[in-house]
Every structure is written in C-alpha cells, then in structure tokens.
Amino acid sequence: MAIGVLYWAPSQGTSSTDMYDLYIANKNYSSWSLRAWVLLRELAIPYRERLVNYGGKANPGAFRGFSPTGKVPCLVDGDVTVWDSLAITEYVAERYPAVWPADAAARAFARSAAAEMHSGFFGLRNTCTMNCGIRVALHSVDDALKSDLARLETLWADGLKRFGGPFLAGPKFTAADAFYAPVAFRLQTYDPPIDDVARAYAARLRALPSMHEWYAAALADMFRSESHEAEARGVGIWRQDLRAGS
Q: How far are the Cα atoms of 56, 103, 193, 223, 243 from residue 27, in angstroms, in the given order?
C-alpha cells in the first residue's frame, strides 16, 4: 500500500496541481530512493511522497503499477513518468536550476560525480548494503571495497578543495550531494576505514535536516526485507540493531 505524505514549499510559487508524486521504497533500505527524496526535500521542491513496501515473496511486483521497470524511485508528473534517479534529477533540474551548481566548472564536476556514483562503486554496494538502523563490524575489507573507499576519499577531497565546500561542489547542497547521501549512511552502519576528510563530509550530510528526517523514519519502520537483512548478516557481526521492534 502506498502512503501519501505531502511536502509543500509555498515559497516556490508552484500550485498544488503542479506537484510531483515521488514513489519510493522503505527508508531503512532504499538507497536509490534516498537520492531523489533528499534532493527534493533539501531543496524544498514540492512533492507528494508515495511509499510502497518492498514486495518480497508475497508481492514481487509491488512497484509494477507505477514504475515501468518495477523499481524505485519513480517520479510521476501528470502524464509524465520518470523511472531512474539520474533521469529524475535532470527532469526536475529543468524547472529548478538549483539542482545543479550555477558555476559551469562546479556543475561539470557535480554531474560527473553523480554519474560516477550512479554507475559505479560496486564493491561498496555489494559489501555494504544500505540498512540505516543497524551497526555492523565487517568480517573483512576486500580489495574491491578498499578501491571504492580510496576513490571516495580522492573524489570528495577534490570537490571540497576545488570548490571550497562545505558541500561537494561548493557552498550549496546540490544533486552531487544527494547521490552520495546513501554512502553517508553506509559509512555509519559499517564503519569501514576511511580518512578524516571523507568521514567529516559524510557526517555533514547526515546532519542535514532532511537526512535526520529520513533516518528517524527508517528507525521507526517495522517492515523487514528478508533479502536485505540476509545481505547485512553475511558481511559482518551485528553490534547493534536500533530499529523499532528489535
């Protein structure tokens, strides 16, 4: 069942009929949903949240009613459906330029960084599945994860130094930061070895009001995805489970 939550920013001057519908999955697990959600939320772009539980064995086609790929996030704007997080970002940017930095060099960096996250970092994804509410001591840090962590350190340090921070492409939160928001939660969950600059940037992302809101909802969610739980159990020892009902 979808849950509708209205996020409205009157200062944008957009009528309620122009509001997007953003379909997402459970906040404890859905890293892809977080990208689009935190972008709209942090930039005060009006939308209605439509949260649909992962289907699992009971309902494997849970997302097929609104998403052509059966995946989330999926943004619906009247007769227009956009079913990929990067495509959603570019679609929304046509109406809200603040999605990307105003400076051309910073914008090019931000787009490249977002695209790299969108299509890479498989070592990080495969080992550190998103599960906001637990704390895990990894059994090991393999070469693929080490490589991804090293790339994060280099990429984040480059952006912060070149554009002055505190965000990845300058003084304002943009889509580049939204795409690395799930990584900030992954680093909190698994605490892999990473340098102080990267650790501080991840903490800065987690300190955003929108990220606090997402995290609180993730902890409060009683739903459990068997596949996500199994992935997290397979890579390390669970030190804490902070979720409601645990």
A: 16, 32, 25, 10, 12
Residue 143 phi/psi, 5-degree rounding, is -65, -40
Compute CA distances 102 → 98, 110, 117, 172, 178, whole Å: 7, 11, 21, 10, 16
Q: For residue 237, what is the enclosing H or E element?
A: strand 236-241
Query: Per-residue DSSP letters for 118-162?
Result: HH--HHHHHHS---TTEEEEES---HHHHHHHHHHHHHHHHHHHH
Yes or no: say if 12 and 40 are a contact pair by the CB < 8 Å rule: no
- Please state, in angstroms and rounded to a whole number, the distance separating the CA atoms of residues 104 and 101: 7
In 3-state terms, what secondary structure has residue 74?
strand
Q: What is the DSSP letter of 170?
A: B
> 221-235: per-residue pLDDT in tens?
999 999 999 999 999
Task: Record the pTM.
Answer: 0.92
